[in-house]
Design brief:
alpha/beta, Rossmann fold, Alpha-Beta Plaits, five-stranded parallel β-sheet, five-stranded mixed β-sheet
Length: 299
C-alpha cells in the first residue's frame, strides 16, 4: 500500500520514510504542501497520507480541505502530525478532513498501530466500492449472459430514439431454444444464448445487447448503416459456425429481424417492425443451416 509522507523537516522526513519502508509500505515523499497536493490530486494518489500540520505553501489542514472537496470515489486516509496538542487544534484538523492525528513527538509503535488501522479502513472502503459496483452491475445486467436486462435495454432504446444518429435495431431468437430446454438442459439453452451474445459483442464494442426474453435478444447498433450491421451479423454467424463445428447432437440456429430507426420512430413502432421482421425470418429460415442469417429481413 502506498503512503505519502508530507513533512518539511528533512530529518523527520527521512526517518519516517526509512521506518515505513521497513514496515513494507511503498513510500512517496513531499517536502511542502504544494508538492503534496500535486501527489494527492493525481489519479494514482496514495491510499494513505501522513501530513505535517505546518508546511510551506499549503498547511496540512488546507490539504485536508482540498482533498475532501474533490469528487473522488476513494479518498486517502489522512493522518495528521502536529505539535499542537490543544483539543481545539485537534478538532480543527479533524473538521478539515483528517481521519486521525498524532501529537509530536510521537511514538513509532503508536504510528505503526495507527497505520494498520488506516490499512483496514482503506481495505473496507475498497470492498464497499466494489460491492456497490457489483450491485449496480447486477441491477442492469442479465446474470446468465452478461447482456443488459430487459428494462435496461429498453431504456437504451428510448435514448437512442431521441438521438440524432439513430440506430439499427435487431431482434434475435434462438430457433432451437425450446427444444434444447426440453430435450437437453437449461444449461444447453443458456449456452446457446451466451454464445450469440459473445459473438455479437465481439463484432463491435458499440453494440448494445439486451436479454429481451428467454430466447430473444434485443440488439442496438447506434449510428451504423444497415449494410454494416448485416455484415457484422454475418461475421458472428461465421464465428458461431466455427465454434460449433464437430459438435455432436442438434445444433441451434438463430433468426434475426432488423429495422432502422428515424427521428419520428416510437419505441412501440420500432419493436413492432423488428418483431414482424423476426417473424418473417423465422417463417422462411432454413433451420438446417447453422445459425443462418440468410433469412434476415430488414423492414
Amino acid at each position: 500500500m502506498r503512503v505519502l509522507i508530507a513533512e518539511d523537516d528533512f530529518a523527520s522526513r527521512i526517518l519516517l520514510e526509512a521506518v515505513l519502508e521497513k514496515w513494507g509500505y511503498e513510500v512517496v515523499v513531499a517536502d511542502d504542501g504544494a508538492a503534496a497536493w500535486r501527489i494527492l490530486d493525481a489519479d494514482n494518489a496514495p491510499s494513505i497520507a501522513v501530513l505535517d500540520w505546518m508546511m510551506p505553501h499549503l498547511s496540512g489542514v488546507q490539504l485536508c480541505e482540498r482533498v475532501r472537496n474533490r469528487d473522488r470515489e476513494l479518498a486517502p486516509y489522512i493522518v495528521m502530525l502536529t505539535a499542537k496538542g490543544e483539543k481545539t487544534d485537534v478538532s480543527a484538523g479533524l473538521d478539515a478532513g483528517a481521519d486521525d492525528y498524532l501529537v509530536k513527538p510521537f511514538d513509532f509503535v503508536e504510528l505503526g498501530a495507527r497505520l494498520r488501522v488506516a490499512k483496514r479502513a482503506v481495505a473496507l472502503q475498497r470492498d464497499l466500492i466494489e460491492s456497490r459496483k457489483a450491485a449496480h452491475y447486477q441491477a442492469l445486467h442479465d446474470s446468465s449472459t452478461g447482456a443488459l436486462n430487459r428494462g435496461t435495454i429498453l431504456t437504451r432504446l428510448s435514448e437512442v430514439l431521441t438521438s440524432e444518429g439513430g440506430a439499427i435495431v435487431g431482434l434475435f431468437a434462438i430457433d432451437e431454444h425450446k427444444w434444447l430446454l426440453q430435450y437437453e438442459s437449461t444449461d444447453s439453452a443458456e449456452a446457446a444464448v451466451r454464445a450469440l451474445v459473445h459473438e455479437l459483442r465481439s463484432q463491435s464494442s458499440d453494440t448494445l445487447i439486451g436479454r429481451y426474453c428467454a430466447d430473444e435478444l434485443l440488439v442496438l447498433w447506434p449510428n451504423q448503416s444497415m449494410d454494416s450491421v448485416v455484415a457484422a451479423v454475418a461475421a458472428a454467424r461465421g464465428q458461431l459456425r466455427n465454434l460449433a463445428a464437430g459438435r455432436p447432437g442438434r445444433i441451434p440456429t438463430f433468426s434475426c429481424g432488423l429495422t432502422p430507426t428515424d427521428p419520428f420512430s416510437s419505441m412501440e413502432l420500432v419493436l413492432c417492425y423488428a418483431d414482424t421482421a423476426l417473424y418473417a425470418a423465422r417463417a422462411v429460415g432454413d433451420a438446417t443451416d447453422l445459425f443462418s442469417i440468410e433469412s434476415t429481413v430488414a423492414v
